[in-house]
Every structure is written in C-alpha cells, then in structure tokens.
Amino acid sequence: MDELAAGTSPVHKLHPLVKFLVTIAYIYCVVSFSKYDLTGLFIMLLFPVIMFSTAGIPISTCFWKLRLVLPLVLMVGIFNPIFEGKAGLISMVTLMMKGVFALMASFIMVATTPIDGLCAALRKMHIPSVLVTLLLLTYRYISVLVKEVAIMTDAYKLRAPGQNGIAPKAWGSFLGQLLLRSMDRANELYSSMQLRAFKGEFFYAAQRKLNVRDALFFFVCIAAFVLARLINITELIGGVFA
Amino acid sequence: MIEFKNVNFEYEKGTPVLTDISFKIEDGESVGLIGCNGAGKSTLMKVLLGLLPHEGEITVGDVKLAKDTLDEVRKTIGFILQDSDNQMFMPTVFEDMMFGPLNYGHTKEEAEARVDKVLEELGIGYLKNKYNHKISGGEKKMAAIATILTMHPRAILMDEPTSALDPENRRKIINTINGLKTTKLIASHDLDMILDTCERVILMHDGKIIKDGTADEILKDKALLEANHMELPLKLQG
Ligand SMILES: Nc1ncnc2c1ncn2[C@@H]1O[C@H](COP(=O)(O)OP(=O)(O)OP(=O)(O)O)[C@@H](O)[C@H]1O
Ligand SMILES: [Mg+2]
Question: Do B87 and A194 touch (CB under 8 A)?
Fold first, then answer.
C-alpha cells in the first residue's frame, strides 16, 4: 500500500485534504441516491474509473486487495428480491453498486495518498491528535499482524501435512497465540518509538499549500456530483439517441 | 558514564530476575555483557532505558534515572533491539532515520543532514529510500543501527547484534561496531564477536553478576565459562 501511495501521477499530487473531502462528498452523494435509481447512479461510476486510470492503478488491484471485504458489501442487499419482488431486484443491484462505488473511491484515495499525508490532512481538519495517531498506529500494526499470521500459518502447515488451511479445532489456540504474539511485538515496537522520544504526536511531512489545481479539482468534482445527483444523465443521453 | 548501584528487578513478585547488580562503565569503554539464555541481559538493558521499573540507583552521565529524566537518559543512550523488525516502524529507511531527530525538535533540514552523514559513514547510502520490509536481515541490522546513530547518542546498547546474520554480514557489523566512537554495551552469547569488539566483559548468570573483568581474563577461562553454561570462543579453542 505504501508503495502504491508513493506514485507520482496527477492524482497522487493532489492535496490530501482535497482528496479526502472530495471522497467524502462522493460517498455521501452515492449513498443519497434513491434505491430504485439504478440508471442515475450508474453515471457515478465515472469518477472512480477516471481516478484509477489517471493514477495509473489498474482497477483489478482494488478488487484483488479488497477481495475479503467485497462479499460482505455484496451481501447487503441480497434479501431485497425476496421481500420486494421485482423492484427488490433493482434495489439490490443499486445497493450493491453503492457499496462497490464507495469502496472504489475510498480505495483510490488511500492508494494515492501516503498515510502521513492523510493523517496530516485529518489534523488540519482539527480531528484530535489521539484519534489520528491511533489511525496511524493501527495502519502500522496491521502489517505486524499480517506478518505474524504468515509466520504462524507456515509453522502450522509444516507440521500438518495434507491439511488444507487450519483445522477448526486449532483455531482457538491459534488465535490466542496470535493475539499474544502481536501484543508482544506491538509492545516492542512501541518501546522503540518511546526510545526515540515519541510523545504521541507524529511529525507529518510538511504539507504543501493548496494550489489552483487542487481548487479546480475540488469544485469540478463537487459540481459534477451535484449535477449527477439532480439530473439523470444516463437517461438524458439515452433520450438523445432514442 | 553508566552506573548501577544495587539494582534489583522482578517481572513477577517472588521471582527476581536481576539481583543486586552493581557496576560502572566509563566514557568510551566497550563492554560485553555475556551469559546464557535467561541470564537477564535483555532485562538489564531494558531497565537501564527505563522501559522496566527498578529498585536501586542507576545513573547515566550525571543524571539519575527517574520518571522525569527518562527523556534525557534515552537521548544519551541508543538501544539496538535484537529483532530489527521491531525496531523499525516507518515505511522506508529514510523516514525511520528521521523519526528520532524530528521528535527531538530538530528541523527537517538538520535531521536530513544527520541522516545523510550517518548513511555515508556506514556506507549504506543505497538503502536510503528502500522499504523496510524489502531489505535483507543484514541490511536491516545496519539500517537499525543507522536509525539510532542519527540521534547522536553518547552510548549505545546492543542486544545480540549478530544473531541471525551470515558470516559476511556478521563481519560487517563487527567492523561497524568497532568504528563507533561511543561508549558501548553489547549483550551476546557470540563470544567470538565479544572478543573482537570489547576490552571488558561482564558475566551474568541467573540475574547476578558472576564476574567483571578484562575480555582476555574472562573469555579464556574455560572452567568459569563452562560453570555458567557457555563455551570458549571458537578462536581460542585451538
Ligand atoms: N515479559 C516477561 N515476563 C516475565 N518474565 C520474563 C519476561 N521476560 C523475560 N522474563 C524472564 O526473565 C529472565 C531473564 O530474561 P532475559 O530476556 O533478560 O534473558 P537474556 O539473558 O536476555 O536471555 P537470552 O540470551 O535468551 O536473550 C528469564 O528467566 C525470563 O524467563
Ligand atoms: Mg535477550
């Protein structure tokens, strides 16, 4: 993730604060569509698609990295057809699209903004330092956790030939161990931070000032979202050709 | 420069891990701290850095270790952890090296000048913009030492600096250690490395100091080492 965020495309270069606000606006806009407005919602796909292609990140990366969360998002509307019949089918698809769109937009923001920049942007918006630091540490500890899981899974597999994955009866002790080990590790990491005079506030790389391009991006996006929300562009275009 | 006076410590009530530890290290000395697994070497270092509480008196420079002097003590002494993975927590080597100086209130320019100087001294400039999770164990150890050196410590503690390194990287670390002009306290059971880097040795067992003397005197004493579950350095085994 840190590597994706180190790119140099125009999207990467946007000010983190602007990206953050636009993403929030986008998600808000997407969620506020009526649950039967499938065609209206469709146009909103343009934003993430344009962002991904400008950033030079294949959309498949997003789905691959989020493959674990995706089913959950798709599950949300699954009962609508049962309760609402044919209309339910539309509302199910709309709901799924809302979820996927929001995910894509969040992903592109996170993937093109170094975590430092994001935290600095949050601090600028006067979000308390405790929360921001917590976010940053969670982000760092996730990699610790992932590493521990990998080590333990390997160790397990080596002594359980022919087993696919980890047997359910071992899950309890596996999780317990994982927790203890990551706590140990997190503790050591935290010591290392303390030893280097960490006082609860990171020094985020100095952020550059907002420039004209940031402002332009901001207003164009917001205007586009409002327009898309108020006018059903998909139908409009369809109407021209009908 | 570093002095322990009758220091005691226990993790759990009733099982002392450090018992009545007293010693004094002068400015510029290189001291090896040896002892078998569980002797209390790592614990002693953590106590010295104020990561664990203690009974007795610890002085660093002319500062007595206490809650309100933690900052000063930690600024004076740099600690190289046994596991470099736990030492580094920023995405890149560069950011990790900047972390300490920035926290001590140096400007970005000052901090960066320090980073570049240390990288050059250690001859690892090529690591500057590497990702921490993408460098080898030996490189990581060098980078970990670099993150500490940018803080300009007067003394350096190292916990098992050569564990899990191949002979070539081990040699590199030994040369690096010998090139450091600070006071050094090195915990290890790699007695050959201790022989190559330290003039003085403190031998611990079961949380007590068994002997404190010159490296020659202790590392050549087969009976003493064996009584404390260690062996002569390979170099002296003839
Ligand atoms: N977090 C802990 N809680 C309780 N006891 C501990 C803890 N860490 C270490 N100990 C105990 O303290 C004693 C000293 O451990 P320490 O890690 O200091 O030894 P060491 O000399 O560094 O050994 P090694 O050579 O294996 O690194 C051991 O008996 C160990 O079991
Ligand atoms: Mg140890």
Answer: no
Quick check: is A119 in a domain?
A: no
Q: Please report whether residue A122 resides in a domain.
A: no
Domain hosting residue A226, numbered range = 2-113+209-241
Q: Do A36 and A101 belong to one domain?
A: yes
Q: Mutate which of B89, B102, B158 to test chain A, going by most A C-beta atoms within 10 A?
A: B89
- Can you tell me which atom of ligand 1 is nearest the CA of B40? 18
Chain A environment of B91 (Cβ under 8 Å): 2, 114-115
Q: Which residues of A touch B100 (CB under 8 A)?
A: 196-197
Q: Domain check: are A78 and A185 in the same one?
A: no
Q: What pLDDT shows up at residue A203?
A: 67
Nearest CB to A196; choose among B51, B86, B99: B99
- pLDDT for position B199: 95
Q: What's the pTM value of the predicted model, to 2 decimals?
A: 0.72
B89 touches chain A (CB under 8 A): yes
User: What pLDDT, on a 0 to 100 scale, did the predictor assign at position B146?
Assistant: 94
Q: Atom 24, ligand 1: which residue's CA is nearest? A: B37
Check residue B38 and give its pLDDT: 92
Does A8 share its domain with A52? yes
Q: How confident is the model at residue B10 (pLDDT cuts 50, 70, 90)?
A: very high
| Site of tokens 């003590």 | B73
Q: Is residue A107 located within the same domain as residue A213?
A: yes
Mean pLDDT of successive 10-residue segments in chain A (242 residues)? Answer: 74 86 90 82 88 88 78 74 75 86 88 80 81 77 73 75 71 80 81 81 69 90 88 71 62
Whether residue A217 sits in one domain with residue A150: no
Number of domains in chain A: 2
Give the model's pLDDT for residue B33.
97
Measured between CB atoms, does B127 come within 8 Å of chain A?
Answer: no
One domain for residues A185 and A220:
no
Tell me, yes or no, whether A202 lies in a domain.
Answer: no
Q: Which residues lie closer than 8 Å to A101 by C-beta, 6 or more apart?
A: A26, A30, A41, A44, A45, A48
Q: Are residues A135 and A63 in the same domain?
A: no
Query: Do A80 and A157 sit in the same domain of this protein?
Result: no
Greatest Cα pair distance, chain A, in angstroms, is 70
State the average pLDDT over residues B156-174: 92
Q: DSSP letter string over A139-208?
A: HHHHHHHHHHHHHHHHHHHHTSTT--S--HHHHHHHHHHHHHHHHHHHHHHHHHHHHTT--S---PPPPP
